[in-house]
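Appendix B, example 12.
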Amino acid sequence: MILNDDFTPMEFVVHVLERFFGMSHAQAFDLMLTVHQKGLAVVGVFSYEIAETKVTQVMDFSQRNQHPLQCTMERE
C-alpha cells in the first residue's frame, strides 16, 4: 500500500508506481489520485517476499530522494 502525505510531489509518486510496480503512466496517475483523495491505495498483491522487497525498494528510493513517501504491506 502507498500512503498519502502532504509533502511528496504527485509526480514522484507516479514515477515510483511506474518504476517499481510496472504501471503505465495512465495507471500510475489514476492510482496516485486515489492515494491523494482516499489517503492510501493498494498497489498490488504479491507473495510476502516480493512485497517485502518492493516496500524496501520504495522506502529506500524515497529516502534517497528526500521524500517522506510511505509504502507498507499487510497480510490478506
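Strands lie at 2-3, 40-41, 70-71. The chain is about 55% helix and 10% strand.
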